[in-house]
Amino acid sequence: MSPLPPSPAPSVAAPARPLLPWVRAPRRTLAASLSLGVFAEVLLDRERWGLGFPLMVAALVGALAWLGGREGWQRARPNAWLLAPLGLVSAFVAVRDSSWLLALNVLTAAVLLMLLSHFWAAGRLERLGLTDYASVVLGSAVQTLRYPPALVRDSVDVQGLKAHSRFLGALSRGLLLTLPVLFVFGLLLESADGVFSSTMQRLLSFDLGLDVVVARVVGVAFSACVAAGVLGHALRRRALKELGDAEVTSATPRLGFIEALMLIFAVDALFFVFAAFQVAYLFVGDASSPASGYSFAEYARRGFFELVVVSSLTLALVMALTRWTRRETRVAQTVFRAGTSLMVALTLVILASAMRRLSLYEDAFGYTLLRVHTHVFMVALGAALAWRAVTLWWKQERFAVGAFATALGAVLVLNFLNPEAFIVRHNLARYARTGSLDTEMFYHLSADAVPGLVLADSAVSKDDPWRLAPLLNEHQERLSQGDTVPEWNLSRFLARRALLRAGGWSAPVNP
Description:
Shape: flat
Distance between the termini: 100 Å
Helix content: 55-70%
Radius of gyration: 32 Å
Strand content: under 5%
Low-confidence stretches: 7-17
Structural class: mainly alpha
């Protein structure tokens, strides 16, 4: 008798990944999220943002610290320095009135909140690679969408609802039966007696404002979902390995050293020749007039954008060469670092040439918002290039966090600089020298520029066609309605005070 064939081993299916994540202290987190939702509706559902935004960010961070407890704070301490730039950019929402800076500050605060929620429990921000910053921010934003339903799932007693389902069903059916009967009888009795009819009309003649109620509920729900996502993601049970838990692994070099060195020396030679011409003309020679055959505008515009693109591409080239070039000996490493450092140094000269061209243009035609922002961008780009040169010789893996800090620094510099007041101040000084003033762009400035505009108006001759009285009247109209406490903004406060001191305007009454 032949033996029976062995039975196949039972297949064990891999456990399915849960659709909704685990949430720590779900009921407390849900209560905190709902409270933050109400708080956000009170502070941010306004015509203008101001003091309410930093208060909202502070409340969110406070709720995170409360829910995480002392243990959570101990794990978050290595990345707690993110709270400093987060607090600054949030506070500047209540300081600057510029719509450009408002959008930039809110976006920066959102990025910092996503980074803070990712690194609250573990990991180190400085271990991220350059592209990992975008991955962490976007990934955290997507992951936050999973936590609001998880909080509801873990907080609501589904079994208790099932136990009372019979009572809730009977209550619903009773309402469906009662309301139509009351409606019919009410109509009949109202038509039967005039006194009763007039009394009922007075009692029911109120506007529930359902559109406002629905809008408020939707606003609270949306803000609560955002808060629940940030809190839940920060207090999540972390995976075995996430971005920032370990140093970025270096890529496998694929480009030969000789090939890379030929490219580096060729680019260095080209940059050296170009930089020599730029230094000879822009920094040593007479650069008070544009090159022969060009106007100021043509010379600045034609050269400026190309030089900025060259500087950006050089940074990308140095990063790519550092990542992919084989350097198997100490001599090869030293020669590579020296060649790329020279490339960065020459690129800084090219970037200085671009800034010099822009300065020539500004001296001739004045400052605008785009020109001031471009100046700050070029300084930040130069700082990133210089940091790249440093990290070629010391801790290459720290370039990404330095570039991130440079971007944060650029945002803070713009806020401290107050570009609109800077434009008015320097263009007024140029008017004192040349007698020329372009007032058209002043009509696009916010309350940040009003104190400077008041001074400019007093400095311009009364017979001058560049009088700013119509513009100041527009600002008076715009600022005539006072700010509520959540809307309070320092620039708008200083603008109202400057207009009041200029005379002919009464202070607004807060609604």
